[in-house]
């Protein structure tokens, strides 16, 4: 992160009235990591390992950035999904990417839950941002609060898979650009 590298601090989230410095995002990212893996806390608690896939169905928000940075620090692949896609396309991307974790915004819950019910989806951890979890879901902020910022001890190489993007697939299924 920029502040960790001694660069000038930047601020995110002006559209919501919130201010997030790169240092704050870095700290929350480290908390996310703790819960995504198997150590006490956030993303580690969901067993995310190097090479896993973390899919997100989120609008532009701090949780999008936090999840993206936490995923990269873990050596996992970030799988952003366009919030305007229909459920069958979201299902396809979850299955095709092999998503292990799925993070979505509460406002997109009907779409996310419909996609999760589709064929071939093997998501093992489900996180909702800003809403009430049901069943096997967890709430994003509660997961972050359970994490304690600490170094991961994970070595991520420059050629490790970091992100799996897809075009919307206007004429058929979503397509990966490369």
From TrEMBL:
Top-tier EC class: ligase
All copies of domain AMP-dependent synthetase/ligase, residue ranges: 42-175
Pfam families (alphabetical): AMP-binding
Enzyme Commission number(s): 6.2.1.3
Molecular function per GO: long-chain fatty acid-CoA ligase activity
Designated name of the protein: Long-chain-fatty-acid--CoA ligase FadD13
Keyword Ligase: yes
Keyword Ligase: yes
Swiss-Prot/TrEMBL keywords: Ligase
């Amino acid at each position: 992160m920029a502040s960790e590298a001694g660069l000038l601090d930047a601020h995110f989230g002006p559209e919501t009235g919130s201010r997030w410095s790169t240092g704050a995002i870095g700290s929350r990212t480290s908390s996310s990591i703790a819960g995504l893996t198997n150590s006490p806390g956030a993303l580690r608690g969901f067993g995310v390992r190097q090479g896993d896939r973390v899919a997100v169905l989120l609008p532009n928000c701090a949780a999008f950035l936090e999840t993206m940075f936490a995923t990269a620090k873990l050596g996992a692949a970030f799988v952003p999904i366009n919030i305007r896609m229909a459920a069958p396309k979201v299902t396809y991307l979850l299955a095709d990417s092999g998503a292990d974790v799925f993070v979505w915004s509460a406002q997109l819950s009907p779409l996310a839950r419909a996609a999760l019910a589709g064929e071939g989806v093997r998501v093992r951890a489900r996180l909702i941002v800003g809403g009430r979890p049901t069943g096997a879901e967890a709430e994003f902020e509660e997961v972050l609060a359970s994490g304690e910022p600490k170094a991961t001890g994970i070595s991520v190489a420059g050629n490790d898979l970091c992100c799996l993007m897809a075009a919307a697939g206007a004429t058929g299924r979503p397509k990966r650009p490369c």
